Amino acid sequence: MKKVKVLIDLYYYKAAISGIRSYISELKESSEDHGSEQIQYLFSHDIKKLSYNKTYLNSRNRFIRWVFQLNYLVYKQIVLPIKLLIIKPDYLICSDYVAPIISFNTKKITVVHDSLFWDYPENYSLLWRRYFISLIYLGIDRKTQIITTSHYSKNNLIKILKKTNKINHVYQTFRFFKTKNIPLNIPENYILHIGSFEKRKDLMTLLKAFHFLKKDNLKLVLAGAQVLNGNKKIIKKVKKYILENNLCEEVILPGFISKEESKVYYKNASIYVFPSLDEGFGIPILEALSFSIPTICSDIKVFKEIGNNSVEFFKAGDPNSLASKIRFLLNDEDTRKKLAKNGLEHIKKFNRKNFIKGFEEFILNE
Fold first, then answer.
1. Which of 119, 163, 186, 249 is the most exposed place for a label (fewest CB within 10 A)?
2. How far is 335 from 296, CA to CA, in rounded Å?
3. Are residues 344 and 359 in the same domain?
4. What is the pLDDT of residues 285-344, one digit of tens each?
């Protein structure tokens, strides 16, 4: 039987950070480890070579960011269609929101991770946002299959895109690279959050809750890219609050950390807190649960979907509610053990096999 030929576009990996970077990597690994024998998977690039080039990785230089966007546009709309013409795959998977306008006879599967570009316009420059959203729409023709990361995101996108295309969700997976523990100067007892410094992450609610606690020997670690696409507003606000409330010794800001470093931070954390006001998925929840860390999330719909009965929830945006939950978990060993047990069982369904099979359902059953 002739195999179905599927090309996975990896180009955006060279500039992707955090969630999308992991998504692209996991999609490639999942297809190689658990892909159907009926499918021949091909890749647009060598992902190892892409990872060596750090030029475009969250650059603070506006000129460099626009150079990447120009290269990205040329690649998506000229180079990639030429690849399709030469390779002649049956399907193209674009895991970075954007598919080429011209795909010849190749069917397109586009991953639109969330609706944040539409929901939070203030987080992006006006010109860039309009340009990128236009690219998303132009890449979706009437036959394009749209995949997103959660049922919550699916419902949002149905309302926003207003297309007749099928929109389905496939839960993504996560996996840490197997590395030796590297030496890091970390505190003995700390609350952890890992994520970029964006307004929707609501780090101020976490800071305020921590300040209310003021518990001896308890630290707060806020790790992640502090300047996102040149935006310094949140890190300035965070540092101002820390100074005004004499928290310089208690709050640690390590900046962007590697996967190897994050593994050490997760392993030694007392509690993980995810206070976001909106997310498309929430990979850090699964990462924290994999280390049996008691986890507290805001009570937004997507976190209830992803976290289920494995995390504690607090009222989104309410530092008093969060402080109460942190205090409760620090002092209740039985609940900590229960969450750890539930978490290890819960994360089993977010595996590589289920991830790639979710895509293959659309490819093999069409």
1. 249
2. 12
3. no
4. 999 999 999 999 999 999 999 999 999 999 999 999 999 999 999 999 999 999 999 999
